[in-house]
Amino acid sequence: MNYTALPGFVEQKESFGETTITIDAAHIRTACAYAREELGFEMLVDLVATDYLGWGSKGVSGYIATASGRDINFPSTQGLQTLPAVKPKRFSVSYHLLALRQPPVRVRLQCWLDDGDELPSVISVWPTADWHERETYDMLGITFDGHPHMRRLLMEDDWDGHPLRKDYPIGGEPVRFSDAE
Amino acid sequence: MRMLLCELNRIHSHLIFLGTAALELGAVSMFWYCFRERELIMDLYEMVTGQRMHTRYFQIGGLAEDIPEGFYPQCREFVEWMPHALNDYRTLLDRNKIWLERTKGVGLLSADDAIALGQTGPILRASGVDWDLRRDQPYLAYANVDFQVPVYPEGDVYARYRVRVDEMRESTRIVDQCLRRLERLKGQPWITDDRKVVLPPREELHTSMESLIHHFKIVTEGFRVPEGEVYVPIESPRGEQGCYLVSDGGPKPWRVHFRAPSFVALEATATCTHDALVADLIAIVGSLDAVMGDTDR
Amino acid sequence: MADEPKRLRDYGLQSERLLWPTKGPSHFEQEMSADELEHALGLTTLEKAVRWAQTKSMWPDTFGLACCAIEMMSIVSSRYDIARFGMEAFRSSPRQADLLIVSGRVAHKMAAPLRQIYDQMLEPKWVIAMGACASSGGMFNNYTILQGVDRIVPVDIYVPFCPPRPEALMEGIIRLHEAHQAGLPPAYERKQAAAG
């Protein structure tokens, strides 16, 4: 299918059998409306945001030597074999769309945000986005412009911070005899 | 085998729905009957995996253990018994005046609303949309078994109950077909021998250097997943259960997000309760089968 | 001692002689003076009778939180049948319940309602922490899960495992019954005594 007609189209990527389309963040609502009306994606299956703070900063390590060094003295290190591709901005918000037809078509619309950026809400296109957007706000602190009640959904109303951000402390208690102590 | 266990789990989930939803509407005996069959499924689970809930039997690459002796006859017994149990349920509820009054025409959700609200699974099918990922986007071996997808157009609580009961019947049929095929496959390996993802057998460690290295790498570090992002949906008992995974190329995922069907189902409560009585709220939330542990993940 | 309970004799009654005036003292009474016997029999059996009655109708509160709640439901079901111990009456109102089974992990958000429910229960009341998560936070060592429900309510019995089998929960309940019948006070009383 040709997706270049989507408003705010930036690029199209195929990986692992899935189509990812990057959309300019300002146009996401019109792009979703277009996908629903013209391309027949009736259902918004999921809306998920990811924080890429510190992406790729673990460095390369392990048993494969690369230009940026390796660490064979620490075998259980969680380092990477190769550095992952650089992400354009800190947050990604993915909209997983589904077309109810045979065979089913799935597509991921993705847009990129920096901390503090607002994203147009897609509630007017799919009412189901309501809770998804509130959850995203709750967990990652991404605000959606035009959402009628942008409140916390899962955490308490007076909670500090947004727990799924990578700079949020995991919390809990130190476990004895572990690395963390 | 994975499919068989998935279907057993589907029956189990629907049984709990039926038991508790009927309990909430005052039909206490349904609860006893449903939990009676649930215990049979739990027995099978325990036999295969060693635990009743929170089983860890599926593994990347196959199964953790071989199917134990005695599983086939016991499972066969269950498959033969289940249709009778389903008939019992239907005799108890189908002409039960209270049940009908409390469920018919209550909590209406039209097909358009259901789609717009992102509903999946039994709720969508009870609203008249013929959609099942097992059939439409087959995973595991669902393409190789024969089953029907029950669809009811009414979109009320009663239709959701009918869909789930019919699904239990279909799941029993799938389990039956799986059993037949598995019995023919007895003695075959139950897990892949790709040593990059699966631990080598214990006895190999003493004789083979490569096995030892693989064992060490998997235990201390895990295996590396290629960089990228995927979204994998399956048809869980409550609807589409999706898993969105971002990997940075290391052994630990960067971001995991589950699309929880209950989360979405609970969102539909507001639409369903339009023009309903407060007392019907119990029936409606019960019929959406929202599990809170799934909702808040 | 002002607090010592009055004996029947102090009221002018001669205990069993009332019923059988002609009966002389029994062997048992001769061995153990009549006063002591009265003291022992009258008081302890009454207390024990109350305890026995309490254990035989210890009504749990329906407080299902997570996966353990399903197993909590199954102890009521036909195979495990908690009615054998007089506990089938799960009460939705904390004011009618004696036993709070915390089944599952407690998020910080849930901690306040949990404590409120506990405070609303009438004494004597007991708490069972069911499963690893309720006992210690389990595998969730993070920002949102309370690391053990004993941080906010006094717990009588911890049932380990994840989730506990129904048999394990029943074992916990029976242990609780035994402890109560043996005269062990509920956890909140012990806590108060320890705090002074």
Structure notes:
The complex is a heterotrimer of chains A (181), B (297) and C (196). Chain A is 12% helix and 25% strand. Chain A has helices at 28-37, 129-140, and strands at 9-15, 18-23, 43-51, 91-99, 105-113, 118-120, 143-145. In chain A, strand 1 and strand 2 (18-23) form a beta hairpin. Chain A is globular and about 55 Å long. In chain B, helix 1 packs antiparallel against helix 12 (280-288) and helix 2 runs antiparallel to helix 3. In chain B, the strands form 2 sheets. A 3-stranded antiparallel beta sheet of chain B has the order 3-4-5. With 297 residues, chain B is mainly alpha-helical. Chain B has helices at residues 2-24, 28-49, 71-93, 97-103, 111-116, 121-126, 133-136, 157-184, 209-220, 261-267, 269-272, 280-288, 292-296; strands spanning 58-59, 62-63, 228-236, 239-247, 253-259. The model of chain B has no long low-confidence stretch (mean pLDDT 81). Chain C has a domain at 59-195: Rossmann fold, CATH 3.40.50.12280. In chain C, helix 2 (34-56) runs antiparallel to helix 6 and helix 3 (67-76) crosses helix 6. Chains in contact: A-B, A-C, B-C. Chains A and C meet through loops of A and loops of C.
Write a brief caption for the model.
Chain A contains 2 helices and 7 strands; from the N terminus they run ββαββββαβ.
What is the CATH level 1 assignment of the largest domain in chain B? Answer: Mainly Alpha
Decide which structural class fits the backbone of chain A: alpha/beta
Largest sheet of chain B: 3 strands, antiparallel
Structural class of chain B: mainly alpha
Helical residue percent of chain A? 10-25%
Instruction: Name the helix and strand elements of chain B from N-terminus to C-terminus, one letter apiece.
Output: HHEEHHHHHHHEEEHHHH
Please tell me the overall pLDDT of chain A: 78
- Poorly predicted runs of 5 or more residues of chain B: none
Identify the quaternary structure here: heterotrimer
What attributes does this structure have?
heterotrimer; B: 297 residues; mainly alpha; Cytochrome-c3 Hydrogenase, chain B; three-stranded antiparallel β-sheet; two-stranded antiparallel sheet; 5 strands; 53% helix; 10% strand; C: 196 residues; alpha/beta; Rossmann fold; four-stranded parallel β-sheet; 7 helices; 4 strands; elongated
